[in-house]
Sequence to fold (624 residues):
Amino acid sequence: MRIGVIGTSRCSKKIAKIAYEVGKEIAKRKAVLICGGLGGVMEKAARGAKKNKGLTIGILPGFSSSDANPYIDIPIVTGMDHGRNIIVVRSCDAIIAIGGREGTLSEIAFALKLRIPLIGIESWKIEGVIRARDAKDAVKKAFQALKKEKKIVRCT
Amino acid sequence: MRIGVIGTSRCSKKIAKIAYEVGKEIAKRKAVLICGGLGGVMEKAARGAKKNKGLTIGILPGFSSSDANPYIDIPIVTGMDHGRNIIVVRSCDAIIAIGGREGTLSEIAFALKLRIPLIGIESWKIEGVIRARDAKDAVKKAFQALKKEKKIVRCT
Amino acid sequence: MRIGVIGTSRCSKKIAKIAYEVGKEIAKRKAVLICGGLGGVMEKAARGAKKNKGLTIGILPGFSSSDANPYIDIPIVTGMDHGRNIIVVRSCDAIIAIGGREGTLSEIAFALKLRIPLIGIESWKIEGVIRARDAKDAVKKAFQALKKEKKIVRCT
Amino acid sequence: MRIGVIGTSRCSKKIAKIAYEVGKEIAKRKAVLICGGLGGVMEKAARGAKKNKGLTIGILPGFSSSDANPYIDIPIVTGMDHGRNIIVVRSCDAIIAIGGREGTLSEIAFALKLRIPLIGIESWKIEGVIRARDAKDAVKKAFQALKKEKKIVRCT
Fold:
């Protein structure tokens, strides 16, 4: 299973701690962590996963694998800037949004559109977002909500 | 000037009428209309522009120019499905959201992120969205807000 | 009809002259010219079209419409770097390659893959490329070869 | 290190055998195998890697992770059809082309453009492609040529 973690590239200590715990829980459940590969929430979550023997994928916006934070095992280099957000979303079976601003909102919107379960902690309050109270609760809810049927939603 | 119009591919009569009026006003002001090229809000706005001698661009999600609605002069064929949303946003100097669901929300999020002025009519109430009361008011506000400085916001 | 012109962003005087003539012939036949929007072959072809009352579209790799050469009417801003090459190709009914290096080769390959007619002048000698001896011959052959059936080739 | 393997989704027995051997050699050298995730060369190479305890990434063109062949550990779901080819290329430190038609040619062109070492076995004879005589020779040459300097080539 592949669980995405989305959020800003700079974040408060409180959000960083949640991101670390989310990454840790994902790794403990043997799921692969997918994120945007940069700093902040992405880095903290990847660190939490790596410290617990997880596997981490970073879908990068830029032109070089060296943009990835030090806890990314596999950098995917898109060269598409924010255009890569939809690839992060499409590649996950469930997604956890931690905090987040406009970039995160674009990913939440894509997840809702594509019917990929989206759990939010201290994040955007949009209809369809499953709210969690802490890291453990979020990962638990992500696993409960895992996209089961492979119904594909196309742009029409 | 290039003004984007975003919204769902199916819409109520009320939203359709607003979209037509927005397209008309854009054409009367000699701006180019950019949209996603499909039905609903996109088609009504393009029709309003064409009936008033405007030029219309449709940035399509699929694989064929024949997906475009009949009021699109120039179809751009991306083959990227919803991934084309960010190209719609990047190509505009200002954007008007009319109604809209998750797809529209992803475009609103990108516009806010990239600091492209975003006017909303009966649309998502997100901080940063400039609200308008009707079609004329929206187009007027779009022209007032036109992206002036060419400050580029990169994904970091 | 939409005719693409592809080639390098820097070119010899000889290639520049051919590109100008190709743009001129496209405009005289009332077709829309689509290109990558930058300098060299793209700029010369767009200039040839504009001097003959044509309409020009530039599908840009970067983040700003101001990257477009001065002869582009409609800049499409992709933010996808070379990733935009396939959008140039998909959006055309026929394409003319003038000279060209690796970037052009990627576009030729996509055109062949997607069964979009590809005319080459002093360009890559790849099976499937229709060779032309000069600008007039190239545009004539492009119109003769215009993609007729809208058969869509998907990646399988 | 990440080594890409590119080629067609249907292939001869001879090419299939080479692809399997290439995948095997990549895994034995502890490199990650990246490919387009579908059948033919991509599947045979992934199978060769998996049978030798390698890790495999499939960068898919479609909308579902279930499009991946059975030997892909991590599917990346782009929804970009052939537009994903450049992401395959950008994500590798070196690439091995085995046979191949137009889709492969687009990837070879991008690799040459982006200065990513490209080794060819029974593939396109384009200037800049390093030719190998068999699977072992190809993987050896890929490791010798590994992109050392992280010079980034931008579209200009």
